[in-house]
Write a structure and sequence with these properties.
The chain is an alpha/beta fold. The chain has 2 domains: about 1-215 and about 275-350, ABC transporter type 1, transmembrane domain (ABC transporter transmembrane region fold, Up-down Bundle), CATH 1.20.1560; about 370-605, Rossmann fold. It is built from 24 helices and 10 strands. The protein has helices at about 1-10, 15-35, 40-45, 65-85, 85-135, 140, 145-165, 170-190, 190-195, 200-210, 215-235, 240-245, 250-275, 275-300, 305-350, 410-415, 440-445, 460-465, 470-480, 485-490, 510-520, 540-550, 585-595, 595-605, and strands spanning about 370-380, 385-395, 395-400, 425-430, 430, 445-450, 525-530, 555-560, 570-575, 580-585. The strands form 2 sheets. Strands 6-7-8-3-9-10 form a 6-stranded mixed beta sheet, sandwiched between helices. A 4-stranded antiparallel beta sheet has the order 2-1-4-5, covered by helices on one side.
């Protein structure tokens, strides 16, 4: 129930709908009980002439309100029966219809108002998870399956709506229906009512025993659901590799193993859940049979209970069955919902280790340098960087080169503060980046990565991602600088052309040039290029390299390079090996030393 309370915190903004729902449910429960109580005077007056009332009762105060209301109703019915029996029958039928109409009207209104609460909470929980996804550091998702996160924001939130929020309709209505019904039953016969309640604890124990394993099985189902969604996501994003290596059978087998496991879990879960309704109904009917035996004795043998009262009592006792059955189903739903809510709050309550300092400043401009001072960093156990220090003056281009695993891309992750250093510090204009707000820090930077990360949207929206309300002229100018306008202008819809999922309608070089145009349009003072040409063919590399040169002109740049041909004109080339700087200088200077840099150059055989 702890997670239920947490989910209910999301319902606070919609409390007006909850209040209206409660009012309507109270009236529903009241009219549900009255519709059965109305049977007693009707049966008495219609079928037993001795029960007819010939004098209107007098008001003697609130103490005798029950007798006054019953007497007045009996008197009204008796008068109509004496005048015209058909008219009396129509009057009685009208009352029954009115009571049931009011019961169902308020039942509908209760459901109407709770809909806004349920859907509002559903939306707000999803928004909260998505906001948290955007807030959490990159490191969090490097350890998680994408499909599992997708499952939490879709399947788990839906489960919470079905399991938790649906029982909001029952929290007031069903208990009140039971309470009002029990009060009416006690008024009619306390002895018979108490006899009935001897059997309720037994029923409750049996129903409880059925649902003990529901939460655990439900959690297993949601975890497996996340796993198979991950398989779907991996298959879709890697379809060329799957087909190219004829690995369809392997992936098909993995997917079917997952869905088979999910089927077994759901079979067990749903069969146990489906047992709730028939079990509670059977136990309810068993109680009705006990009432028939015990109450029948009171009517026929002891003659301590009127037949009309006994018939109404049976109706009221059956009236408890439906809400009792709903409550028993709700108890199962809570167990399932608890497992889903636990997975949701595992995300929502995850602490992010990349936070703005309480007194973080908003830095709007870049004045003189980026300084990386004696930093040490590790992703897990082993250090990736050791006492690393460089200075990037304003307007300079610094290139980081080295073999794979030397720590080059880690520098980009640390400067943009996707990760925080373990020791040392990174400063911009003498201010530690941990004292600068993340938004303003990243606002000073443009990022072009090895993988061209584009979205299933138009060229205009992809290029304009970093600048709100960019004009077409500004977008076209950025495309020209990035050598991308030459192919964009020939597309059927120009800037409005949709580039497909991850930009897959375009070639690798075209995608990369769009990524560069996006960075150019943002026009940041610091540019970070993380192996921006390593995945390109020679012709595409030439075009992209020209675009990069255009972009880096008069701009501070940190270039992480795999292809050394792209950084010959850098102001400073930093050669890295196993997280340390082994040498640095300009291209010609490093070649003259005939050391590590020259070996890298010879390996790539470029002039």
């Amino acid at each position: 129930m702890n997670y239920f309370k947490k989910i209910m915190m999301f319902a606070i903004p919609y409390k007006r709908f909850a209040i209206l729902n409660i009012i309507c449910n109270i009236l529903f429960a009241l009219f549900s009980t009255l519709s059965f109580l109305a049977l007693i005077p009707v049966i008495n007056v219609l079928f037993d002439k001795s029960k007819r009332v010939v004098e209107a009762p007098e008001w003697t105060g609130w103490r005798d309100v029950k007798d006054y209301v019953i007497g007045s109703f009996n008197y009204e019915v008796s008068q109509r029966v004496n005048e015209d029996e058909l008219s009396a029958l129509i009057f009685i039928c009208g009352i029954v219809v009115l009571l049931f109409f009011l019961k169902n009207l308020f039942g509908y209104l209760a459901a109407f108002f709770i809909t806004f609460l349920r859907n509002g909470v559903l939306r707000d929980v999803r928004n909260a998870i998505y906001d948290k996804i955007l807030e959490l550091p990159v490191s969090y998702f490097s350890e998680k399956r994408k499909g599992d996160t997708i499952s939490r924001i879709t399947a788990d939130v839906n489960e919470v709506q079905v399991s938790f929020l649906s029982i909001l309709e029952l929290v007031v209505r069903e208990p009140l229906t039971i309470i009002f019904t029990i009060i009416a039953m006690l008024i009619m016969s306390a002895k018979l009512t108490l006899f009935v309640f001897i059997f309720l604890p037994v029923s409750g124990f049996i129903i409880s025993a059925i649902g003990k394993k529901l939460k655990r099985r439900s959690e297993q189902a949601q975890q497996e659901n996340g796993y198979f969604l991950s398989l779907v996501e991996e298959t879709l994003s890697s379809l060329k590799i799957v087909k190219g290596f004829t690995a369809e059978d392997k992936f098909r087998a993995r997917f079917r193993e997952s869905t088979d496991r999910l089927k077994r879990i759901l079979d067990s879960l749903l069969n146990r859940q489906n047992l709730a309704s028939p079990t509670s109904e059977f136990l309810g009917i068993f109680v009705i049979v006990i009432i028939l035996w015990f109450g029948g004795n009171m009517v026929l043998v002891d003659e301590t209970l009127a037949p009309a009262t006994f018939i109404a009592f049976l109706g009221l006792a059956y009236n408890i069955l439906t809400p009792a059955k709903q409550i028993s189903k709700a108890s199962y739903s809570v167990k399932k919902g608890n497992a889903a809510a636990e997975r949701i709050f595992q995300v929502l309550e995850t602490e992010t280790n990349i936070k703005d300092a309480p007194d973080a400043i908003e830095k709007k401009d870049f004045e003189h340098s980026v300084e990386i001072e004696d930093i040490t960093f590790k992703y897990e156990d082993e250090n990736v960087l050791h006492d690393f220090s460089i200075k990037v003056p304003k307007g300079a281009t610094v290139a980081l080169v080295g073999q794979s695993g030397s720590g080059k891309s880690t520098i980009a992750n640390l400067v943009t503060r996707f990760y925080d250093v373990n020791q040392g510090g990174i400063k911009i204009d003498g201010i530690d980046i941990r004292q600068i707000s993340k938004k303003s820090l990243r606002g000073l930077m443009g990022l072009v990565t090895q993988d061209s990360i584009l979205f299933n949207d138009s060229i205009r929206n992809n290029v304009g991602l970093g600048k709100d309300n960019a004009t077409d002229e500004e977008i076209i100018e950025a495309l020209k600088i990035a050598n991308a306008w030459e192919f964009v202008k020939d597309l059927p819809k120009g800037l409005d052309t949709n580039i497909g999922d991850s930009g897959n309608k375009l070639s690798g070089g075209q995608k990369q040039r769009l990524s560069i145009a996006r960075a150019v349009l943002k026009n940041p003072p610091i540019m970070i290029l993380d192996e921006a040409t390593s995945a390109l063919d020679t012709e595409s590399e030439r075009l992209v390299q020209k675009a990069l040169e255009n972009m880096m002109r008069n701009r501070t740049s940190i270039v992480i390079a795999h292809r050394l041909s792209t950084i010959q004109n850098a102001d400073n080339i930093v050669v890295m090996q196993k997280g340390r700087i082994v040498e640095q200088g300009r291209h010609e200077e490093l070649l003259s030393r005939r050391s590590t840099y020259q070996k890298l150059v010879e390996m790539q055989s470029f002039e």
